[in-house]
Amino acid sequence: MSYDIFAHYYDEIMDQSVYDSWLLYVEKYTAGKSGLNIMELACGTGKIAVELAKKGHQVTGVDLSDEMLSLAYNRMQEESVRLALAVGDMRSLEPMGDFDVVTCFSDSLCYMSDENEVAQVFQSVNRNLGDGGVFLFDVHSLHQVNNVFPGYQYIYQDEEGAFLWESFAGDAENSVEHDLTFFVDSPGNPGLFERHTEYHRERTYPLDVYQRILAETGFTDIAVTAEFGVSEVREDSPRWFFACRKA
Fold it and tell me: Does this UniProt record's set of keywords contain Methyltransferase (predicted)?
């Protein structure tokens, strides 16, 4: 499936205000500082990376998909900012510099299949942070994965086609599976639609597991919050936000 299709619907269905909330969360830990060296893991189409660059930071966007990075490059050109973009697997990043901040948002870490892969990501981040550098990320909560997602359905339509999102409980503990189906106009065949599908698996862990793995991989001053850092964690919080420093 073309990532142009996925990106079109992703940007359409995503509440745009959520990007402002992510940026405000970053600003809590960068307030009063300019020209920071920031890496955004799983940068996708580059929306957050571009906004950070607009604030005067030097931003490197890393994503596993070169197609997504192509869309991030187009966004960078349209917004007249400069980003460094690199294809990379966040489980096995080589040292790319001593970054002041590394971010990983939009529950991207939940695509890791087990605790070992989560630890690999944290080790990769640690290798790329300068001493005292800040690591910011979010994940789905247990409540979101086990009580909200199973049975969830969403349908979106516009002039270019339709998008169906269905979620089911996964086989692994604290996991969820998403079926995404896209119906888009067939090029050269007006009135006919092509069907494209995507299948996503996500998994999360109890808070103490994330905290333990962070400590084991060289992080300290671990703070966990909800609602983009403005609330304490509750049993029904949909997403957890982590802030920590390289020891």
Answer: yes
